[in-house]
Specification:
Layout lengths: L1 E3 L3 E4 L3 E4 L13 E4 L6 E3 L6 E4 H4 L1
Parallel strand pairs: 2-6
Antiparallel strand pairs: 1-2, 3-4, 5-6
Length: 59
């Protein structure tokens, strides 16, 4: 997983997890698993709007 500018994380797996990634346990959101559609190539977390981009679709 590679974090870049503009709240985008490049990933090499079509299944990703997100918990808000805050260091303070009282912040963030519940851990959820998201499935990236291979034809679309990306997905947004419905809680924090973090964008996960499948690596092959980013280039």
């Amino acid at each position: 997983m590679i974090k870049s500018e503009n709240n985008i994380i490049k990933v090499s797996s079509l299944k990703v997890s997100c918990d808000g990634e805050n260091n303070n346990s009282s912040e963030g959101h519940p851990l959820i698993w998201l499935q990236i559609d291979e034809e679309v190539g990306y997905i947004f977390c419905p809680y924090c709007e973090q964008k996960f981009v499948f690596e092959d679709k980013y280039t």
